[in-house]
Design goal:
Two copies of one chain form a homodimer. Chain A has 106 residues and is α+β, with helices and mostly antiparallel strands. Chain A is built from five helices and three strands; from the N terminus they run ααβααββα. Chains A and B meet through helix 1, helix 2 and helix 5 of A and helix 1, helix 2 and helix 5 of B. Chain B binds a DNA duplex (30 and 30 nucleotides) through helix 3 and helix 4.
DNA sequence: TGCAATGATGGCAATATTGCCATGAATAAG
DNA sequence: CTTATTCATGGCAATATTGCCATCATTGCA
């Protein structure tokens, strides 16, 4: 395993890791349909404002979302159009696993 | 945010979290093309055998991979056919982000 | 200018993840 | 039966993540 390959997987893992949190998945879902400011997101997520702000920073750091500042408000939005494929994969795994557990009772 | 919705996002996040590690992403990549046993995977990943075994347990726990035991060997393979969409999304985010950094020098 | 609203950041404790070593369980070979 | 091979698991220390509180910077408004 050469160094370049490992770095590629680390870069991918960093993005996956940014998505791997229930609140952040919810936020991505919301921001895919509409631009939202931190206050609105805070209400939806139901956590402290500072917590939401840090989640947003994580998503922004890997380039999944972007900000547009309008006065005192910060409007966030999803930058890439590929999230549906991502979410569908998660759903597919969930569904498959439920089926398996139904039939084999593992 | 009701309880059922939160649980759905937690279930999705659990799967995303299972994928969110460079070694596990590599292993998923490898296991998508071919069945492999723990020893071979250990060589590819370049970590301790016990470490690889635990990574495999994480992936198996969320239903991303499955095992077939043949004597003393354990052959692992990917169970779902949706991983390409997942990986393509990661690549897309990476690529977009690189472009942005090129043009805006943020 | 003074004050409220918005959101970003430092700090910190609780929790989770990671990776190795040592060891255990199961199978294969001699 | 003895020994080697394969891989799973307990334990544990190092590290990373998470979430809240307190606080700061910026903007809008009176």
């Amino acid at each position: 395993m050469n160094k370049k390959t490992r770095q590629q997987y680390e870069a991918r893992a960093k993005i996956a890791k940014a998505m791997a949190h229930p609140s952040r998945l919810l936020m991505l879902d919301l921001l895919q349909n509409q631009e939202m400011c931190v206050g609105d997101l805070t209400n939806e997520v139901g956590a402290d404002q500072s917590t939401v702000s840090k989640h947003l920073a994580v998503l922004k750091d890997v380039g999944l979302i972007d900000v547009r500042k309008e006065g005192a408000l910060s409007y966030y939005r999803v930058t890439c159009g590929c999230l549906d494929g991502f979410f569908m994969c998660l759903e597919s795994v969930l569904k498959t696993d439920v089926e398996l557990r139904k039939t084999t009772l593992k």
